[in-house]
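Regression test case RT-17, inverse folding.

Input:
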């Protein structure tokens, strides 16, 4: 009997592998229609990706199943679901997911319950497929046979995980992996989704070992990035707004009126122009933009996909901390709860004296009908805080504000802020962000006018964290997807900072405080040294 079962297994296994490989191949081939990482399978995929998936699919091969479509097709469902999740992740953030991203999944629950519902429903296809396979295969088997079958499959799975974690495999995979440092899109397409997930996860692990080596180094970050002494201690206000995009920069749009509120025009460069600066992120990863603006160090995402997740509260060399050493009081007003991107520990490491999370406690109430705190309400709250600080403190102030109003899915309280802007585009998201932009720029203008009345000599920098994940075949942006709008005001003079990267903004502010323009190292290896050293200071091992 056992011999007959083995013959049946060996007879049907090649058919099974052929069907599964064909399904995977068809997905890869046709996925070019919904993701840039899809398309014709390269030979590189056969070095690991395809063999790995076929080996893994053997776990779900049950030769006793009589219904052929269940036996040969259903086992491919878990692979296709994971592929679809990978493609959607890349569609939003334009990069491969990594193991460290799993700790940030909970943030989706706060931003989009509808998306969470779809994720949960789609994820259920995996256990449903597995349960169906087990049921169909073992409905006429004894309990002992079922336990035996499931045990050897579990053993096979654990053995596969052990092999993937071994140094021998890591060396083989790194050697055979085709890494194209200028194009992650092409890298993933060449090597495969699973292969890339494993490769980038291994990179993070190796970089963490590098981080430990820098703990004993004597690199003085502050003297390199912030040399000299402050001679003109102006108050500093940095305002970072979620997905703050100028819809006029989207190609082919026509508006019934300008979505830019006229009240903001006097504060822009040459009275009508935003600066165009380079964010480290697109579509998500607000904390990456924060990291650069608050440290002056490039967010390389080498230890973790989000640097904030690495920090554990130990004081690190940062722009904020260096200002503190010159007597500044540093405060942060954050339009979220404290649970995002390890913010509580990260802000502590950065050196903030005071951090207010507006969605926590009773000191602030979100307006009824707003999904996220409206930027105008956030800035009104902040201006009152600044007034009190300037009245009661004799020390210079570093004021940091993080908004969240423009976050996907771009909800707006239409009873409070009705439609003003009509747009010549069928995608409703364009209409939403255009109307948001009108009300946001109106609120920002009001805030700046108030700041100028109470703090006329201050430095003000307003920017977006990153662009929203909008762009594709139907919606095209005039610039690179990392180019964001901002404006820089010193006193009442608007200064063009176009072409600057986010980590260069603290340098510019520092130079205005010291009255001297300093040169900093921009070479990749030098910036990498500063990056590892700063993060090594922020943790305690």
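Golden output:
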């Amino acid at each position: 009997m056992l011999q007959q079962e083995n013959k049946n297994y060996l007879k049907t296994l090649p058919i099974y592998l052929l069907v599964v490989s064909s399904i995977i191949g068809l997905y890869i081939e046709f996925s070019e229609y919904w993701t840039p990482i899809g398309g014709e399978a390269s030979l590189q995929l056969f070095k690991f990706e395809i063999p790995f998936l076929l080996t893994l699919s053997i776990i779900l091969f049950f030769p006793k199943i009589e219904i052929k479509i269940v036996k040969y097709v259903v086992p491919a469902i878990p692979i296709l679901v994971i592929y679809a999740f990978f493609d959607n992740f890349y569609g939003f953030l334009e990069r491969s997911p990594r193991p460290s991203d799993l700790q940030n999944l909970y943030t989706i629950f706060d931003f989009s319950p509808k998306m969470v519902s779809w994720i949960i429903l789609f994820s259920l296809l995996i256990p449903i497929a597995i349960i169906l396979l087990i049921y169909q295969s073992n409905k006429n088997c004894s309990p002992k046979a079922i336990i035996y079958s499931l045990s050897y499959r579990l053993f096979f799975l654990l053995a596969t995980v052990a092999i993937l974690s071994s140094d021998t495999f890591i060396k083989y995979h790194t050697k055979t992996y085709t890494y194209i440092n200028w194009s992650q899109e092409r890298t993933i397409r060449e090597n495969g989704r699973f292969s890339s997930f494993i490769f980038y996860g291994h990179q993070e692990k190796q970089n963490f070992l590098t981080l430990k080596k820098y703990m004993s180094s004597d690199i003085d970050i502050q003297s390199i990035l912030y040399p000299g002494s402050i001679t003109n201690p102006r108050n500093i206000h940095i305002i970072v707004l979620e997905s703050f995009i100028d819809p006029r920069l989207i190609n082919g749009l026509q508006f019934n009126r300008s979505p830019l509120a006229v009240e903001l025009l006097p504060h822009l460069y040459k009275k009508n122009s935003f600066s165009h600066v380079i964010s480290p992120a697109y579509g998500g990863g607000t904390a990456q933009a924060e990291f650069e603006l608050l440290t002056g160090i490039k967010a390389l995402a080498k230890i973790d996909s989000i640097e904030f997740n690495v920090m554990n509260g130990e004081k690190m060399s940062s722009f904020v901390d260096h200002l503190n050493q010159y007597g500044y009081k540093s405060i942060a007003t954050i339009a979220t709860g404290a649970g995002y991107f390890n913010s509580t520990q990260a802000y502590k490491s950065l050196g903030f004296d005071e951090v207010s999370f507006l969605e926590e406690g009773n000191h602030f109430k979100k307006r009824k009908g707003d999904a996220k705190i409206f930027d105008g309400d956030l800035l009104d709250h902040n201006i009152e805080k600044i007034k009190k600080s300037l009245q009661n403190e004799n020390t210079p102030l570093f004021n940091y504000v993080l908004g969240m109003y423009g976050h996907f899915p771009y909800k707006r309280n239409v009873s409070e802020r009705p439609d003003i802007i009509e747009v010549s585009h069928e995608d409703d998201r364009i209409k939403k962000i255009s109307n948001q932009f009108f009300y946001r720029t109106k609120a920002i203008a009001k805030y700046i006018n108030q700041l100028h009345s109470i703090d006329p000599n201050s430095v003000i920098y307003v920017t977006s964290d990153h662009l929203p994940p909008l762009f594709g075949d139907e919606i095209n942006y005039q610039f690179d997807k990392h180019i964001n709008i901002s404006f820089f005001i010193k006193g009442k003079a608007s200064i063009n900072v176009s072409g600057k990267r986010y980590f260069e903004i603290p340098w510019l502010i520092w130079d205005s405080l010291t009255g001297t323009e300093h040169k900093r190292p921009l070479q990749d290896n030098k910036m990498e040294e500063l990056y590892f050293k700063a993060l090594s200071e922020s943790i305690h091992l």
